[in-house]
UniProtKB/TrEMBL annotation:
Gene Ontology biological process: proteolysis
Keywords: Glycoprotein, Hydrolase, Protease, Signal
UniProt cross-references to Pfam families, sorted A to Z: Peptidase_S28
GO MF assignments: dipeptidyl-peptidase activity; serine-type exopeptidase activity
Record-stated family: Belongs to the peptidase S28 family.
Protein's organism: Alternaria panax
Annotated protein name in UniProt: Extracellular serine carboxypeptidase
Cleaved signal peptide residues: 1-21
InterPro entries hit by this protein: AB_hydrolase_fold (IPR029058), Peptidase_S28 (IPR008758)
Length: 529
């Protein structure tokens, strides 16, 4: 899940100076993958579930849902590999057709690859705006019904074959939220798909997701993690003391003195790590085995925090607040604050960081949230508020990389502001997790559904191989699963054309996926269609 920023007026992170932040991860991805595929559309029903009162008043209207395909490897009788677009535009998934997992599978099995853009993302919007009423059809069950309808009705201009026929094997792939949609589609429409691969599939909904930061604590550079944890402890000690002068001085050290809400301050300084629902800069999640798609910004941040020989103007900051903490130094504070001031604040183009207008780091502008303009951030927030939750919050006990003022009420307020009650729809007081978890959560199972995860992924504990799920996880031919040691968030979706030259742990994962798909196709051929 690459959560889109919800804060106001924040520029895309650009290349920075000696504090070192790379060009935006998303920007790199789009630049590397210049659009080369033609957008096609299918007339998709807005409302697949006519019998449910949840969608009253019902509609028989359709919307134009975009898809992109690559038939360069296709040979008669080959499978269709359906990549579920997830919470972004179809264009941003092109790499999967060019060098990623779909390209690998297309070449290996003489298949056709297609990216289906999710409803309410990219340009696949059912309505011209996204009011609370217009968003009522953005649910998990409607989204996975799109996948089934597309499989049965899609056409591929220029391809001399009817690939939506019942005889053609279709295999889905999705990563993160799209991985969950893949799993749920296989659970619900198993008879029309030959198989599916859910990578880092976030199949479990939790209201609070404190575990997001656990892999960073466990696998991150120990000295960096230790310093951040200690700084956060000092920050919380100062906040809990209620010392207004000390708190203001703390904010000024980071160049964020104008921020009025302490939670906005806590979230902003957490951006290099991952702020709750907002991380417009590169974090641990954006690490990748592939230099083409990854970012080293997290390690650059840590290098600043742990610099053993900082200049005097930086090192002196470590003791600036000691008077508020019984003389104890805040080791690494100077490097931390310097990184924020040099890599984050310059990207606030307006120069306004406060929370009384469209400030870059303020989240208290209710008018901004209520804007019904179509956009991926709004769609993602709606799904989070409605069904999936997963609010990133600080742990109640033990070490924390973010201030403990960041709790669920901070995120939940955005739901209230963004989606006022409409005539036909309103959001619940808290997410209705049962709509999401009804497919099985951590224990989702379907024949020929493969679930693959990475053990350093921040979203792991919402996935099949979660540390919170029943253990052990045992793979079989019809219920395959795989945990990649040392891998992050759906790292298997990225590839190079010469798979044998990939790092061992990624190469072996791709070989496993090829073997798994081969079995899917064998099982499909054994069935009568």
């Amino acid at each position: 899940m690459r959560v889109l920023t919800l804060v106001c007026s924040f520029a895309v992170l650009g290349s920075a100076t000696p504090a070192q932040a790379s060009a935006s991860w998303q920007g790199k991805r789009q630049a590397a993958d210049a659009p080369v595929y033609v957008a096609h559309t299918i007339d998709q029903p807005i409302d697949h579930i006519q019998g449910s009162d949840r969608y009253l008043p019902h509609t028989n209207a359709t919307f134009k849902q975009r898809y992109f395909f690559d038939s360069s490897y296709y040979k008669s009788g080959g499978p269709v590999f359906l990549y579920i677009g997830g919470e972004t535009s179809g264009e941003s998934r092109f790499s999967n057709l060019q060098t990623g997992i779909i390209q690998i599978l297309m070449e290996r099995f003489n298949g056709l690859g297609v990216i289906l853009e999710n409803r309410y993302y990219g340009e696949s919007y059912p309505f011209n705006s996204s009011t609370t009423d217009e968003l009522r059809f953005l649910t998990t069950e409607q989204t996975i019904a799109d996948n089934a309808y597309f499989r049965q009705h899609a056409t591929f201009p220029g391809v001399n074959a009817s690939l939506n026929s019942a005889d053609t094997p279709w295999i889905m792939y999705g990563g993160s939220l799209a991985g969950a949609h893949t799993a749920f589609t296989m659970k619900t429409y198993n008879d029309i798909f030959a198989g599916g691969i859910g990578s880092s599939a976030t199949t479990q909904a939790l209201f609070e997701y404190r575990q997001w930061y656990n892999p960073i604590v466990k696998f991150g550079p120990a000295d960096c993690v230790s310093r951040i944890v200690n700084i956060v402890d000092r920050i919380d000690e100062l906040i809990w003391s209620g010392n207004k002068d000390g708190i203001q001085e703390l904010k000024e050290i980071f160049g964020l003195g104008a921020l009025q809400d302490l939670r906005d301050f806590a979230m902003t300084i957490a951006f290099p790590i991952g702020g709750p629902m907002n991380y417009p800069t590169n974090t641990w999640q954006e690490l990748n085995w592939s230099e083409r798609y990854g970012s080293e910004d997290f390690f650059n941040f840590c290098s600043n925090v742990t610099n053993i020989d900082p200049p005097a103007n930086i090192s002196s900051v470590d003791t600036a607040l000691a008077k508020y903490t019984n003389g104890e130094a805040w080791t690494g504070l100077g490097g931390y604050a310097d990184y924020v001031k040099k890599t984050l604040i310059p990207n606030c183009e307006s120069g306004r960081i406060d929370s009384t207008d469209e400030g870059c780091f303020g989240t208290q502008n209710q008018t901004y949230y209520a804007d019904p303009t179509n956009g991926g951030a709004r769609s993602y927030l709606y799904s989070t508020c409605l069904e999936s939750g997963g609010y990133q919050v600080a742990p109640t006990n033990g070490p924390s990389l973010v201030s403990r003022v960041l709790q669920v009420d901070y995120t939940q307020q955005w739901c209230t502001w963004a989606f006022p009650p409409g005539e036909h729809n309103s959001i619940p007081a808290t997410p209705q997790l049962h709509y999401y978890n009804k497919y099985g959560g951590w224990d989702v199972h379907a024949e020929n559904l493969a679930l693959i995860d990475g053990n350093t992924d921040v979203w792991l504990d919402l996935c099949y191989h979660s540390n919170l799920a029943s253990q052990p996880r045992i793979s079989s031919d019809k219920y395959p699963s795989y945990l990649i040691a040392g891998a992050g968030h759906h790292w298997d979706s990225y590839g190079i054309k010469n798979v044998s030259a990939e790092p061992d742990y990624i190469r072996e994962a791709h070989y496993w996926e090829e073997r798994t798909v081969s079995r899917f196709l064998e099982f499909w051929a054994e069935k009568e269609h």
